[in-house]
Design a protein that fits this description.
The complex is a heterodimer. Chain A has one domain: Rossmann fold. Chain A is built from nine helices and ten strands. The radius of gyration of chain A is 18 Å and the shape is globular. The two termini of chain A are 35 Å apart. Chain B is an all-alpha fold. In chain B, helix 1 crosses helix 8, helix 10 packs across helix 11 and helix 10 packs antiparallel against helix 14. Chain B is globular and about 55 Å long. The chains are: A alpha/beta, B mainly alpha.
Chain lengths: 244, 244
């Protein structure tokens, strides 16, 4: 693959909170067409890494770039390339679903017919039609998560960064979201953080496991499974993340 | 500055989609009316001016403006939407200014709704409408000063109550710094320039000259600088408290 196809490039990324090193010298690239499952126990540094790549948290050391734009030197350019679903899918509860999506679309520089088309597309894709005009505060957890997802894919970004996208969804909704991810996978680079291991098998083409801020595994889900004597992902996950 | 306008629109929408706007406007109108007629002795004074109305504004703003400004950033930090906002392709200072202007417009609306008083005083006598107009401008500019302090302090904390109290206290200090009470505390031991600097920082002194009908550039520059400095600090605080 050519260099152009490397959508996310992370090099020696490090994050210190005071004397605590949350992310320790992480490096990996994500190419177009890849769905990278970012795994690790709680507190391993998954969200922190994502927050640095999306430009929310300052980087302590190392570099990250998205579509060739350094996230520190060209924050606005890199942010236009990313669709991001933060952990817990924070949303403006006072707005209606449509109002909120329109707001995001406008900040993303869309207007007129294009805006309407994209918002309608996102509403349709995530089946939000029935809650279109409802204030977000009144929605169920599953709907909120989907509004957050809709917000992330609205501008058809090259890079999708999803922090626990299926958390709080019922099995059917999980299935839908996974289908959507698979559908979009071909033309995007997608990073999903999760601790649901079946999800990695279902949608990811690659699994990266981090533990205590360090990468302990980086290969395909199939290879991950092979490493386990019992053939269970849970076992190998425990083995990899409990050792240190 | 399309993005700034998008933020202003959303923020104004947020005021009016919750009871906040209506509660605030009603209380503002009721209190300013009550103070003018009862404490300000509007009728008994027998003078065709609005001094008894404007002279209470510094005190009214002291607790009503923190009530508006406390939510500006503290709420975003509490609900996590600040992460969403700061990972959108929009600069921090554009958001700071957008939020500030929206709140300012909202206060202008509340202030504008006191127009029946202006009509009343014109019906009862023949006031100097130039002075009244200058007083309205002065009141609005002073409100901007309070608001900038409030916006800045709202970014310091996730807790709206703390933001409210901090803002009220800091505004109180700015308000009182020219008054005997504070001045006499420094008199005798502090050098003269400290006393002068303190009294020149007083909101009350600057507001009083405007209310007399004199829009002095110095007063406008004073409030303008207060707004500028606090909004600058506001943006820095947001960058420093990311992720905490």
């Amino acid at each position: 693959m050519s260099a152009v196809d490397t959508m996310i490039s992370i090099n020696g990324l490090t994050k210190d909170f005071g004397s605590f090193r949350a992310v320790d010298n992480i490096s990996f690239d994500v190419k177009r067409g890849e769905v990278l499952g970012f795994l690790g126990p709680n507190g391993a540094g998954k969200s922190t890494t994502m927050k640095m790549v999306t430009g929310y948290l300052p980087i302590s050391d190392g570099k990250a770039s998205v579509c060739g734009f350094d996230v520190v030197a060209d924050p606005l350019e890199s942010k236009t390339k990313i669709g991001y679903l933060p952990e817990g899918a924070p949303l403006y509860g006072d707005m209606t679903t449509t109002g909120f999506l329109n707001f995001i679309a406008e900040i993303r520089g869309l207007s007129g017919d294009v805006k309407k088309k994209k918002v309608d597309y996102a509403i349709d894709k995530l089946q939000l039609l029935q809650v279109m005009n409802q204030p977000i505060d009144t929605l169920s957890k599953g709907f909120k998560r989907r509004v957050g997802f809709a917000q992330a894919i609205l501008h058809d970004p090259d890079v999708l960064i999803l922090d626990e996208p299926t958390d709080g969804l019922d099995p059917n909704q999980k299935h839908q979201v996974r289908e959507l991810i698979t559908e979009m996978a071909a033309e995007k680079a997608i990073v999903i953080s999760t601790h649901i291991l079946e999800e990695v098998e279902a949608v990811c083409t690659r699994a990266v496991i981090i533990s205590a801020g360090k990468i302990v595994f980086d290969d395909t889900p199939a290879k991950l499974k092979k490493r386990s004597k019992s053939g269970s992902l849970d076992d190998v996950f425990r083995e990899l993340t409990l050792v240190n | 500055m399309n993005n700034c306008w998008v933020i202003i629109k959303r923020e104004l929408g947020a005021y009016f989609s919750t009871p906040l706007a209506y509660v605030f406007i009603i209380i503002f109108l009721a209190l300013s009316g009550a103070l003018t007629f009862f404490m300000g002795a509007f009728f008994e004074r027998g003078q065709a001016d609005l001094n008894s109305f404007f002279s209470f504004h510094p005190w009214l703003y002291l607790f009503l403006i923190p009530a508006i400004s406390m939510r500006l950033w503290a709420e975003e930090r509490k609900t996590g939407t600040v992460e969403l906002l700061l990972t959108l392709p929009i600069s921090t200072w554009v958001i700071v200014i957008g939020k500030f202007i929206a709140a300012w417009i909202f206060i202008a609306i509340a202030l504008g709704l006191t127009f029946p008083l202006w009509i009343t005083v014109n019906y009862l006598g023949s006031p100097d409408n130039g002075v009244i107009f200058a007083s309205y401008i002065g009141s609005l500019v002073m409100a901007g000063g309070y608001l900038a302090i409030g916006s800045c302090l709202s970014a310091v904390t996730k807790n709206q109550v703390i933001a409210f109290i901090l803002t009220a206290v800091v505004c109180f200090l700015f308000l009182m710094s020219g008054v005997e009470l504070v001045q006499s505390f420094f008199q005798g031991w502090a050098p003269a320039f400290v006393l002068e600097a303190l009294s020149s920082m007083s909101f009350l002194t600057h507001f009083n000259t405007i209310v007399r009908g004199v829009i002095d550039t110095r007063d406008v520059v004073f409030f303008g600088s207060i707004i500028g400095v606090f909004l600058y600090v506001n943006a820095s605080v947001i960058d420093l408290t990311r992720g905490s």
